[in-house]
Amino acid sequence: MMRPLVIGNWKMHGSQASVESLLRELARPGEQLPADVVVCPSFVHLQQAIGLCEGSPVEVGAQDCSAQDSGARTGDVSAAMLADLGCRWVIVGHSERRQYHAEGDELIAAKITAAISAGLNVVVCVGETRAEREAGDAHAVVAGQVRGALAGQASLGGIAVAYEPIWAIGTGLTATPDQAQQMHAFIRAQLPGQKGVETNRVPLLYGGSVKPDNAAALFGQPDIDGALVGGASLDAGDFRHIIMAA
Ligand code: PEP
């Protein structure tokens, strides 16, 4: 069995004071956790978070990176800069990046390539809107996103996929464990083969209103290898509870 992976996406939340208090509770030096745990604060809090996680099992990731290695890209942050700082992970293709920054599959695939070549692990997000699900298009949309992001990658090593139905993100609505498992099994079947790792070794995370009271049922599904957690990762008690359920 794969070791579970639980990632907290702190989005555009927090201050130096809140990052410190959250990580004093979450990142305990020498502690053994039942899952690999990553927190993804905003760019401006990365360095502080990396310092606070030192000696603990918690790793730090960023919420995005540029597809470019360096150059005239005002406001962007390269994957190499993140790796140089001590980040281990980066989230790519989150639905909020797709929605508010018009990111498409081609750009997302280029960001994955940049991140992997900088030595980062990547979690690439896919998921359908409510309208797409209601129209019966969820599988086609997700398959297109998976193929668009991954078909051109030389290897799937270092890549995790997060299934995040957009209708479940930040809404309090969660896919049922059955709905999530069904889509995860479908995503696993879409993963390109012959890419360096067995497709059943690629971590598939569920994201969308994961909370302490639904985490165990989701983690109990055979193709759910962990979670990408937004709102509940901003509460140390709730996030710990989710980690312990993994
Ligand atoms: C997310 O934004 O990745 C997410 C899953 O958010 P939430 O857990 O708040 O739904």
UniProtKB/TrEMBL annotation:
Q: What is its EC number?
A: 5.3.1.1
Catalyzed chemical reaction(s): D-glyceraldehyde 3-phosphate = dihydroxyacetone phosphate
A Pfam family hit? TIM
| InterPro entries according to UniProt | Aldolase_TIM (IPR013785), TIM_sf (IPR035990), TrioseP_Isoase_bac/euk (IPR022896), Triosephosphate_isomerase (IPR000652), Triosephosphate_isomerase_AS (IPR020861)
Give the main EC class.
isomerase
* Keyword entries, A-Z: Cytoplasm, Gluconeogenesis, Glycolysis, Isomerase
- Record: active site: 94 (electrophile), 164 (proton acceptor)
- The residues that hold substrate are 9-11, 170, 209, 230-231
- Superkingdom field: Bacteria
Question: Where is this gene product found?
Answer: Cytoplasm
Q: Does the keyword Phosphoprotein apply?
A: no
The biological process GO terms on file are: gluconeogenesis; glyceraldehyde-3-phosphate biosynthetic process; glycerol catabolic process; glycolytic process
Cellular component per GO?
Answer: cytosol
GO terms of molecular function: triose-phosphate isomerase activity
Task: Give the pathway annotation.
Answer: Carbohydrate degradation; glycolysis; D-glyceraldehyde 3-phosphate from glycerone phosphate: step 1/1; Carbohydrate metabolism; erythritol degradation; Carbohydrate biosynthesis; gluconeogenesis
Predominantly, its location class is cytoplasm
Which HAMAP family does UniProt cross-reference here? TIM_B
State the family it belongs to.
Answer: Belongs to the triosephosphate isomerase family.
Assembly and binders: Homodimer.
What is the purpose of this protein? Involved in the gluconeogenesis. Catalyzes stereospecifically the conversion of dihydroxyacetone phosphate (DHAP) to D-glyceraldehyde-3-phosphate (G3P).
Record's NCBIfam families? tim (TIGR00419)
Protein name, entry field: Triosephosphate isomerase
